[in-house]
Amino acid sequence: NEIKELKRLHSDALSLREKKIEELQMEVRMMGQKLSSSDKATNSSEKEIRDKENEITKLKQEIESLTERIRVMLAEMDKKQAEVEKMEKDKADKEKIFESKLSHHLKKIQDYEARISGYEGTINELNEKITSLMNSHAQEGSKGKDAVKQLEYE
To answer: Which UniProt keywords apply (predicted)?
Structure first.
């Protein structure tokens, strides 16, 4: 937007310059016509013409100076725009890398969770077998004690 505004200002300045130059040239021509039609051309009229010509020259120089300043500003803005675009691209690249790494780590976490779930299932099965074996041993032990008591009783 700033670039567009500067370009518009530059265009306006050039238009204004051309218009002012045309106006001043018209005035110079009109003064010249007055002088040629009148034999009573005075030094003051000639001085006015020189003053107007000097004013035209000064305006041309001012416009050239402004035009150069605008060119420099536009070049700086183009450079800054390129820097902003590069930073945005770098940011997007870093976001892609981050998302890729995050996805990779989430996959690893899911793999670990699946392995842990498998280990928990194995642990539960082993606990059940241990409990079953302990119950079985307790029953066997109880049968053995009962048999010993029965033998002692007989």
So the answer is: Coiled coil
